[in-house]
Protein 1
Amino acid sequence: MSKGNLFIVTGPSGAGKGTVLGRVMPSMEDLHYSVSATTRAPREGEEDGVNYYFLRKEQFLEMIGQGAFLEHAEYVGNYYGTPAGPVDECLNKGMDVVLEIEVQGALIVKQKRPEAKLVFIIPPSFSDLELRLRSRGTETEETIAKRLEKAREEYQMADQYDYIVLNDKVEKAADELRAIILASRCAVGRRINLLR
Amino acid sequence: MSKGNLFIVTGPSGAGKGTVLGRVMPSMEDLHYSVSATTRAPREGEEDGVNYYFLRKEQFLEMIGQGAFLEHAEYVGNYYGTPAGPVDECLNKGMDVVLEIEVQGALIVKQKRPEAKLVFIIPPSFSDLELRLRSRGTETEETIAKRLEKAREEYQMADQYDYIVLNDKVEKAADELRAIILASRCAVGRRINLLR
């Protein structure tokens, strides 16, 4: 059996990655959403292994030492990372796997796994992105300015991306992301057994 | 503006290429179905420029001399070919173009245009293919045997194909072909302008 495909879904903060994926995931079979690991404390309602794998700092550092993460980062005193184990387990079973991660992490995974498909989800415009960030009501003016500056930098990395999905309408964006995943399943490398 | 993508849709005779395309074409915008040229006489109801470009033999031979075909072949005394002009006109306008052609012609176009996506449509099985050919009621036992033998040869050329679509259910096959075309439109090369 041929291995599954790895999809790295990324984009500027506020582009709507989660919303688009929320539509795609339930509509496709054999698609695994990779759960991240973190050292931050669970928030109310969060479940271990569902929202995150909640690890102690020593566990996390040990896993870093073992090279057990596809990517990891520290953010306001907590660690976040993508454990390679569950991802490879699914891929080896022939399932496709989706990582929903930040652009920096996405580029690291893409370097390690060049065969992965990097999908960059963007908002219709920068003014729209600003609006979306502002409407969250949780970000300071300074954070918003920083995030926009970061988005501008991320737009410069286009040569690292495989696909661009414009999230002007979430149904259309979800349809496109689904098409990217479905088309990859039709690639001759995945289906060569059908010709034998 | 970036150029459109060229899709070569092919497969064994009897695999259902036409039926699948009949579902996909009306459901997508900016998709041009390439009309073939032929020297055979129009059948009742066939229109020039719709079913075929009907050409006189001298015209056809002159066009061959000018290199005006992406591929051409002679079949029971008549010429058939894919005129390059209308294809390139559409591609240059940014439209996607679909060629529905025989495997031999498909491989010739793929050599000339390596960036084209070659989609190989197959029936669920060889016994199913035999059934489909037989149910047409127009083929002799000898023709059926020849077509099956040809299909076997075509299955060996897998390294030349980009995608394989299994036509076990026509809706599913059409969904996959549509996904292949839609996903190609999301490729970073086509959408780089969105990042500027």
Protein 2
Amino acid sequence: MNEPLSLWNQTPTRHAILDFVAAVTTPGSPDFVPPAERIATFDNDGTLWCEKPGYIQLFFAVERLKELAAADPSLLVQPAYKAAVDGDLAYFEGLYPGNLPELMKLLYDTHAGMTQAEFEAQAYAFLCQGIHPRYGRPFMQLAYQPMVELINYLEANGFKVFIATAGGMSFVRMVSEEIYGIPREQVIGSNITYETRMTETGPVLFRKPGLVEPLGDGPGKPANIELHIGRKPILAGGNADGDLHMLWYSQTHPCRSLQLLLRHDDGEREYAYDAGAEKVQQLAAERNWQVISMQKDFYKVFAFE
Amino acid sequence: MNEPLSLWNQTPTRHAILDFVAAVTTPGSPDFVPPAERIATFDNDGTLWCEKPGYIQLFFAVERLKELAAADPSLLVQPAYKAAVDGDLAYFEGLYPGNLPELMKLLYDTHAGMTQAEFEAQAYAFLCQGIHPRYGRPFMQLAYQPMVELINYLEANGFKVFIATAGGMSFVRMVSEEIYGIPREQVIGSNITYETRMTETGPVLFRKPGLVEPLGDGPGKPANIELHIGRKPILAGGNADGDLHMLWYSQTHPCRSLQLLLRHDDGEREYAYDAGAEKVQQLAAERNWQVISMQKDFYKVFAFE
């Protein structure tokens, strides 16, 4: 067997992860946790794949807004459609983090009304073919390889790993198996509501405007974890203030637990930013969460490097 | 290895199940289905455990209504509290199937406002200690053993088995591992909403009045399956009209699929009733679904027989 976590540098972070996994999986260890309780949850945008210069799903929604505006130019009186056609990403960035629910509503409503099968085909095509503006690679390739390796390592050690995304659950599900080896049902998060319509050939699922409550961000993350999993994670990973409830929630587990906070400090290979992560970084220091420095801890960031 | 499905009689039903499982799991078979697609979903009340003379969760809610009325007798002006104190189960039965949403709201609201941990402790204690009025056994023991055996058999053949209940998801989760060997996260269904409240010791989950949409019954079952699983099942099992959408939905899968409809025709060992299953029985005949006769196909019904 290869050495585990070979895409991580030999730093205290890597050591802390290996130490934790050994402690909770070694029979007889005072920290041993039975397999059924080995639940890990990771945020997706900015934790498992790149979220700059905008959420990947935002690029997808912008494409859709442009399509809709081309079919009906009267939509251009609405600022979101105009911003999409003008390529004004800053307009959408201005909506979050303060207005995340409004942004999410926009993302969802642009893909409402169609069947779920139509949405899935569009989302998958976009993730394979849409090109990231900086890296010139399909969005599918924007996953952080050390995090993918960590997920695989946890699974090999009897963990069940979930993605708890604030973004669209069914968007991420289209590629979760291919990118992370995580089956669709282990991707949980914000999502549009579904409606079953009876047709002559049987029931068909349509996407309805409106979100299933709660939004999978901030306090909505533990709520969503309970809704979809029904257990508290012993390991949680995030990168932004929207993840702090989930990280702290995992730390209230009676068993030994690990909290990982990815810090974006690598402007050369990725992006360097702390905006939107001020609170969680302070909590991490106060509560002894393990901070991952992308610059120091990642031997490699993307597969295409 | 023991012969599979030993709790089933040697009937065409058992043969149809074995034949289906062999066809979809044998490499090289024209009907072979890869493991990731081997999703099975079963209704719970009346399909996996006894639902007469009332839903098990209804007995739980009645206990709670009595508790609440004892603490505050002014509640007795409300018919549900009065019926609970009077032991008038017929009042609650009168609410369904026509008024299932109202009944569900009642079931949920009686256990709202508390923490999820408090609910879980109460639910688990009730399922272990509450006694079924006819069998004189704890409710936990009311699972149909041939169905438990079928679930285990499917899992041994690479299926991932989910319970899609119209009843309370977190109620069933308390015992799903113990009774069926199904982990909590594979129990999906109707559920109350959760709220994360920050306390000095971290985030705590509370139960809020109101249901996560949709109710996991009828057209809500395929919608819930999409929300929690994101794949169409190739095998679905139910017993009542509220299951017909799910059964038909599984039959729209492009791979070979199997639909199982349990018929309650065994008044001696269990109950004999077709009420509330008229539509699904007609559809089963029209669409070639496999009807399970409890009387003819089950060698044994309960573990305590």
